[in-house]
Amino acid sequence: xxxxxxxxxxxxxxxxxxxxxxxxxxxxxxxxxxxxxxxxxxxxxxxxxxxxxxxxxxxxxxxxxxxxxxxxxxxxxxxxxxxxxxxxxxxxxxxxxxx
Length: 99
Hints:
Blueprint: E1 3-10, E2 13-20, H1 24-44, H2 50-95
Antiparallel strand pairs: 1-2
C-alpha cells in the first residue's frame, strides 16, 4: 500500500493528512459530509462558533456509529444461533444410521 499526503478542509480549516491511496476518496467524502452537516446545523441552531457545530456533528455521527455497532452485534448473535442450529442438525444427520 502506498501512503501519500493530502490536504482536506473541515469547518474552513485545512488539514494535511498522510493516508493510504485507497482511502483518499473516503477521507475527502468524509470531509464533505462533515461540512454539509455543519452548514445544515448552522441554519437550524444558534451557535457561538464552529466548534459548537463540530461538536453536534461529532455527536450525531458517533450516535449513528454506536447504533450501527449495536445492530451488527445483534445480527451476529442471531446469525451465530442459526449457524449453531444448522451445525447441530447436520451433526445429528451424520450420527443417524443410513437408510
